[in-house]
Design goal:
The structure holds three protein chains of three kinds. By secondary structure, chain A is mostly helical. Chain A contains ten helices and no strands. Chain A has a single domain (about 1-220), classed as MetI-like fold (Orthogonal Bundle). By secondary structure, chain B is mainly alpha-helical. Chain B has two domains: about 1-35; about 40-245, Orthogonal Bundle (MetI-like fold). Chain B is built from eleven helices and no strands. The longest helix of chain B has about 35 residues, at about 150-185. Chain B is globular and about 65 Å long. Chain C is of the alpha/beta class. Chain C folds into two domains: about 1-250, P-loop containing nucleotide triphosphate hydrolases (Rossmann fold, 3-Layer(aba) Sandwich), CATH 3.40.50; about 255-365, Roll (CBS-domain), CATH 3.10.580.10. In chain C, the strands form four sheets. Chain C has a six-stranded mixed beta sheet with strand order 6-7-8-3-9-10, with helices on both faces. In chain C, strand 4 (about 60-65) and strand 5 (about 65-70) form a beta hairpin. Chain C is elongated, with a radius of gyration of 26 Å. Classes of the chains: A mainly alpha, B mainly alpha, C alpha/beta. Chains in contact: A-B, A-C. The interface of A and B includes residues 49 and 192 of A.
Chain lengths: ~220, ~240, ~375
């Protein structure tokens, strides 16, 4: 097939583009997690903020991705970063907030209150409670949120090619421009495979990071 | 303390809107949008966008609901895991890739775009319909059957109403994504507001870019809000109470 | 010991204020188990949770070993008390061993000491350490989980245990068993225990004293026996139940009422004729025959008439015997079942200790309702 031939011929460039793509997604996820998880934990302690924060994140995610890129461009152009990876990463970070914050919030809130009571009654302070109980139990759901964010980001990063951010979306963009079907299909297939791969990887991470006791609880539940 | 936070939040929000308004003015977006010369094109693009969204959502909703319901029926229940896995996989594929692939096989234009949008929107609806109906307690269905309700009756009177909140959430998610993806449909020749967005980027025309991006954003926000409203009206009050 | 001094707890303010506890005064002595008893919402759980400051105190104070709990660091206070709750609250992400080790680890014990303690505690609650220490809570039954809960509370060897309906989530059959085991444990450990319950039977069984609450007030603070025999008012009388006379029998044990030297006792090697003569002389309608220190059975005059030989050959065997710790209520039940008015009390080897008759039981019940003497 012409597509396989294309991939073979441009293998080096594909690696480069894939790396660009992965780089953008990883950086944005790391930043988004660094912001989102603590924020998610914070709003479980300050319930009155919870609704607002989650609504704000939800609103941001409602904005169509290309529109958000479009909005980022003039704003960041002020500091000379209107095109390229910076607006892309900023938009990706913003997009990832909802799944990460919401999952963190829900995960910690869903820790059974009797466990908190037992922990406090035993003399755990708030940090110990978080560290020993709330976070370990919440981890699987938080990772699930990261997984959603990762897959979403891969898709959106593909669109970022249109604002000069590079990545595998470039093949789709240029392929359409130059009417080069093999390029289009390669780009589309490669980015899809990347998404599926990352999804499976994250599912694996989710499984590995679930405390054994919780896995058993799920399996043995009535 | 709570009141103070609320006040601060509201003030910040107001400031944000003000700043956005000013920025908009500065970039010439407002001027562009209000320019009578651009008006017919605006209307045309809006209509195209609207057309893409409405048709694809209509088909996707019908298909999604049907698939979701079908998979909860006794005969097909065993396929539900498999089908949902495939569906989930499909959802992982980026929207742009779906458009690109569809274009490669079906060519450019409105019809391929509609096809891509429909297929992409079926997934959240089907998955949520399935999950929503599965979540109806078996004891409730048992009671209904014991009373002599038919399967169809149970579906219409109990399963669907109880699953409605989850189904509407799936619909809302699908709709919002659809509006965003429809903006990409321009790239495969289907028109829509994407036209201004992408040409704005290409030609470095911020006013055109924003004139395209902002209406689409507003459309998405409005759609989100309206479905939420619909949800609060349709979903029975009794069910909402149990969630509190 | 724990002293509750004018303890008052109010939720909310002004018109919306709810008084959960009003002027509660009593003291739990060291080594005692006190049951906080009462219906839902009476304040018993609130009192317990004020003790380890999981609830705040509005007025009054709680003194633990003379120190006001408010003068102590809340975290430190809680770490020196064991806390067992109804939902058990085992941490699902930790193994059984890790669950038990929580407080010792927080207190910085070294790993070896912790491991030894964990195994020791598991043995104490009848869970084989080899089998259970690496399991997870999800793999254990409710009863097993709560045993771990108790072990966890005892881990740092606290002097005081706070227990909030600890056996409430366990099915009735296992509940009896775990209650018995806990009583055994307490006999060895002699902890100071505050135990919340809504079940009068559990209160009588488990408590040295009972604090009966209603609507935030302490109504009566007494031993279970006194509560049953001298209820202070109609509320208490209704709460303990109309069958409280029978409940008293649940507290009285065989050893409290047995007669070690009944006058109708004879030994097996006596001849039938001699025994018959003795019975006619003393006007006995039946005699109890023991042989080599063990009770054989009983004889009536007509069994011995015209008979020759040792009386041991003519006995009607007792279908069963009772032990020193058998409650009078059970004894009465056996008597009714077997249609006998006398039963023999034996020791672990089957040796005769004494008898209990129906009259003994009835006399005892009557005494408890008319005397002001405390019964143990």
């Amino acid at each position: 097939m012409g597509v396989l031939h294309f991939i073979e011929k441009n293998f080096h460039q594909i690696l480069l583009l894939t790396w660009e793509h992965v780089f953008m997604v990883t950086v944005s996820l790391v930043i988004a997690t660094a912001i989102g998880v603590p924020l998610g934990i914070l709003i479980t302690k300050k319930i009155h903020l919870a609704k607002r924060v989650i609504n704000s994140a939800n609103t941001i995610m409602t904005i169509p991705s290309i529109a958000l890129f479009g909005l980022m461009m003039p704003i960041l152009a002020i500091i000379g970063q209107g095109l390229g990876k910076v607006p892309a990463v900023v938009a990706l970070v913003l997009y990832s907030q909802l799944p990460i914050i919401r999952n963190t919030y829900v995960a910690i809130k869903n820790v059974p209150p009797s466990l908190r009571d037992a922990g406090r009654g035993m003399g755990m302070n708030n940090w110990e409670l978080l560290r020993e109980i709330e976070i370990p139990i919440a981890v699987p759901v938080i990772i699930a949120g990261l997984r959603t964010a990762a897959v979403m980001n891969i898709g959106i990063a593909a669109i970022a090619a249109y604002i000069g951010a590079g990545g595998l979306g470039v093949y789709i963009q240029q392929g359409i421009d130059r009417v080069y079907p093999e390029m289009i299909i390669s780009g589309a297939v490669l980015v899809s495979l990347l998404a599926i791969l990352v999804d499976s990887l994250m599912a694996g991470v989710e499984y590995l990071l679930t405390p054994k006791g919780i896995q058993l609880q799920k399996r043995l539940a009535p | 303390m709570k009141k103070l936070y609320a006040k601060i939040y509201n003030i910040l929000l107001l400031l944000l809107v003000l700043v956005c308004g000013i920025a908009l003015e500065k970039t010439g977006t407002i001027a562009f949008l209000s320019d009578p010369d651009n008006f017919p094109e605006l209307m045309r693009l809006l209509f195209q966008h609207f057309y893409l969204v409405t048709i694809s959502m209509a088909i996707a909703t019908t298909a999604g609901l049907s698939i979701g319901i079908a998979l909860t029926r006794p005969g097909l229940r065993k396929y539900s895991g498999f089908v949902m896995y495939i569906v989930g996989l499909g959802q992982t594929i980026p929207s742009l890739a779906v458009l690109a692939l569809v274009m490669s096989f079906l060519g450019i234009g409105t019809k391929p775009a509609l096809f891509a949008l429909t297929v992409y929107s079926i997934l959240p609806i089907a998955r949520n319909t399935l999950a929503g109906i599965q979540a109806v307690p078996t004891s409730t269905i048992d009671a209904a059957r014991g009373m002599g309700m038919t399967s169809a009756g149970i579906l219409v009177n109990i399963e669907l109403p109880m699953a409605m909140k989850v189904i509407l959430t799936g619909f809302r998610v699908a709709l919002v994504i659809n509006i965003g993806t429809a903006a990409l449909a321009y790239l495969i020749g289907a028109g829509g507001m994407g036209d201004w967005i992408f040409s704005g980027i290409d030609m470095m025309m911020t006013d055109k870019l924003l004139a395209g991006a902002i209406p689409v954003t507003l459309m998405a926000l409005l759609a989100d809000f309206l479905v939420e409203l619909l949800s609060s009206v349709i979903v029975s009050k009794g069910l909402r109470l149990t969630e509190e | 010991m724990i002293a509750y001094d004018h303890l008052t707890k109010v939720y909310g303010e002004g018109r919306n204020a709810v008084t959960a506890l009003e002027d509660v005064n009593f003291t739990i002595e060291k080594g005692e188990t006190v049951i906080f008893l009462g219906p839902s919402g009476c304040g018993k759980t609130t009192t317990l949770r004020c003790t380890n400051r999981l609830e705040s105190i509005t007025r009054g104070k709680i003194l633990v070993n003379g120190q006001n709990v408010m003068d102590m660091d809340a975290i430190a206070l809680r770490r020196q008390m064991g806390y067992v709750i109804q939902d058990i609250g085992l941490f699902p992400n930790k193994t059984i061993a890790q669950n038990i080790a929580v407080v010792p680890k927080l207190m910085g014990w070294d790993a070896k000491k912790i491991a030894e303690r964990v195994d020791g505690l598991l043995s104490m609650v009848r869970l084989e350490p080899e089998l259970f220490r690496s399991r997870y809570p999800a793999e254990l039954s409710g009863g097993q989980q709560q045993r771990v809960g108790v072990a966890r509370a005892l881990a740092a060897d606290p002097e005081i245990l706070l227990m909030d309906e600890p056996f409430g989530a366990i099915d009735p059959i296992n509940r009896e068993q775990i209650q018995d085991e806990f009583l055994n444990l307490q006999e060895h450990l002699r902890k100071t225990i505050a135990f919340v319950s809504h079940d009068i039977h559990e209160a009588i069984k488990m408590g040295d004293k009972v604090a009966l609450f209603t609507n935030g007030r302490l109504v009566q603070y007494d031993t279970p026996a006194m509560l049953l025999t001298h209820p202070k008012n109609k509320y208490v009388a209704d709460f303990v139940g109309a069958d409280r006379a029978l409940k008293v029998l649940g507290i009285v044990l065989a050893k409290d009422i047995l007669n070690p030297r009944p006058r109708n006792l004879v030994t097996g090697e006596n001849s039938a004729g001699d025994v018959l003569k003795m019975m006619e002389e003393k006007g006995l309608r039946h005699a109890i025959v023991i042989d080599q220190g063990k009770p054989l059975g009983y004889v009536r005059p007509r069994d011995l008439k015209y008979e020759q030989g040792d009386v041991r050959d003519f006995v009607e065997k007792y279908p069963m015997h009772i032990s020193r710790r058998t409650p009078a209520r059970d004894i009465l039940s056996f008597m009714l079942m077997l249609d006998l008015l006398t039963l023999c009390v034996v020791d672990e080897n089957g040796g005769f200790i004494g008898t209990v008759t129906y009259n003994d039981i009835q006399k005892r019940v009557k005494e408890s309702y008319t005397s002001d003497v405390e019964m143990d």
